[in-house]
Fold:
Amino acid sequence: MGAKKENIALVLGDGGLAGAVSAGFMAKICKTIGSEHFSTIYGYSVGVYPATYGAANQPEIIENTWRNHVDGLKLVNPYNLLTFGLKPILKLEYLEKIFKNHIATLNVKKVFKSKTKTKYALIDYGSKNVYFQSPKPDNIFELMNAACALPIVHGVIK
Structure:
């Protein structure tokens, strides 16, 4: 009888541009031991992106994205404070756009074929409760945005 695989979880987080740390960390893990070493990868805040790309075993894409496409004012633009809420400071739609196109396409099928489960920490800002939710193919991008959205800098995602 074979040895039972241990349940080993990985938690990735960090907000805003600090997500580059989680992206680099996940890329290195995928390239060295593989993401399937973990039974579950939990992501909170911007950590949901490297967690998801890690589960899909796409280390080069997540690393390239943070190195070459999430710089300057593309994701976080503090000058939008001057618009008094007309423009968000945090532009999650920018990330979603590049993750859905040829620049950094997330292979959603690979995420759900992976032996590694992916779960996101979501906060209900009304009750302050934290929920861990597994994405589904039809809501993965919406849940990633919801895990990152802060009402003051982005707006609430319902």
The first strand starts at residue 9 and ends at 12. The CA atoms of residues 112 and 137 lie 8 Å apart. The chain is about 35% helix and 15% strand. The beta strands are 9-12, 40-43, 117-124, 129-133.
